[in-house]
C-alpha cells in the first residue's frame, strides 16, 4: 500500500473518530437510509481505458450517527450488477461524513422541566466525503490472452452534496450527487475506477 494511500486512510480515520470521542460517545441519534444509485463508473488510469460502466438502480444502504444536528459520521455499503453477465461486478463498504450547512440533519431537542420539544427544518442541504473500498469482478474472462486478475479491489475518495426533504415525523426523502476525487488501486494498478453517481431514496431517523 502506497504512502499516499496510508496518509489518506489515517486522515479519514482521524476525521471519523475525533468528533465521536469529543462527544464522549454520546451518539443520541441515528439515521438509516436505503437508496438507489444511478450513473457511471469509469477508468481513471489514462494508460489503460476500457470506457465506462453504467450503474442503474443499484442498491445503497447507509447508517449515520449524529453528535449534533449538523454533523454526522457513518458506515455504508453498495453493490453494482453486471446485468449482461448476470453477476455482481462491484461491491463496496465505506466510511462517510456529512456537514449540514443549511437546515438540520436531525431534530433539535429543547428540554423543559415537564416538556420536551423537538423541531426540525422541512429540508436540509449537506456536503460531505467518503472513503470507499470496492471489490470488483471482471466477469470470468477465460481468454488466455487476458493479463488481468479477474478479482481485485481498489480505493475511492469521494465528495458529495445532497438534500434531505422531510415527508413525515421520522422519515425523509434523500437526493445526492456523488463523485470521485481520487481513485487508488489496491490489487492491479491498471484497475482504478472513479464514479459519478446520482442517488435517491428514503431515510428514517430515531
Structure description:
It is elongated and about 65 Å long. With 206 residues, the protein is mainly β. The strands form two sheets. It has an eight-stranded antiparallel barrel. It has a two-stranded antiparallel ribbon with strand order 5-6. It starts with a helix and ends with a strand. Helix content is 10%, strand content 63%. It has a single domain, classed as Porin (Beta Barrel).
List its salient traits:
206 residues; mainly beta; Porin; 63% strand
Write a brief caption for the model.
The protein has 1 helix and 10 strands. With 206 residues, it is mainly beta. The longest helix is centred in the N-terminal third of the chain and has 20 residues, at 3-22.
What do the pLDDT scores average to?
80
> Which overall shape is indicated by the principal axes computed on the Cα atoms?
elongated
Largest sheet: 8 strands, antiparallel, barrel
CATH class: Mainly Beta
Gyration radius over CA: 19 Å
Q: Please give the count of helices.
A: 1
Beta percentage is over 45%
Structural class designation: mainly beta
Strand elements, count? 10
Amino acid at each position: 500500500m502506497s504512502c499516499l494511500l496510508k496518509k489518506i486512510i489515517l486522515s479519514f480515520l482521524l476525521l471519523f473518530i475525533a468528533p465521536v470521542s469529543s462527544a464522549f460517545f454520546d451518539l443520541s441519534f441515528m439515521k438509516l437510509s436505503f437508496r438507489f444509485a444511478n450513473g457511471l463508473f469509469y477508468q481513471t488510469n489514462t494508460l489503460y481505458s476500457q470506457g465506462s460502466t453504467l450503474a442503474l438502480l443499484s442498491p445503497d444502504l447507509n447508517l449515520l450517527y449524529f453528535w449534533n444536528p449538523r454533523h454526522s459520521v457513518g458506515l455504508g455499503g453498495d453493490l453494482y450488477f453486471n446485468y449482461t453477465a448476470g453477476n455482481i461486478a462491484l461491491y463496496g463498504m465505506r466510511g462517510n461524513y456529512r456537514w449540514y450547512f443549511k437546515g438540520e440533519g436531525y431534530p433539535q431537542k429543547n428540554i423543559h422541566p415537564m416538556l420536551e420539544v423537538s423541531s426540525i427544518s422541512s429540508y436540509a442541504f449537506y456536503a460531505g466525503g467518503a472513503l470507499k473500498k470496492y471489490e470488483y469482478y471482471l466477469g470470468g474472462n477465460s481468454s488466455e490472452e487476458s493479463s488481468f486478475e479477474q478479482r481485485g479491489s481498489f480505493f475511492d475518495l469521494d465528495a458529495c452534496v445532497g438534500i434531505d426533504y422531510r415527508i413525515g415525523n421520522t422519515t425523509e426523502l434523500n437526493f445526492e450527487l456523488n463523485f470521485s476525487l481520487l481513485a487508488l488501486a489496491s490489487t492491479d494498478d491498471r484497475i482504478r475506477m472513479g464514479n459519478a453517481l446520482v442517488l435517491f431514496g428514503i431515510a428514517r431517523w430515531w
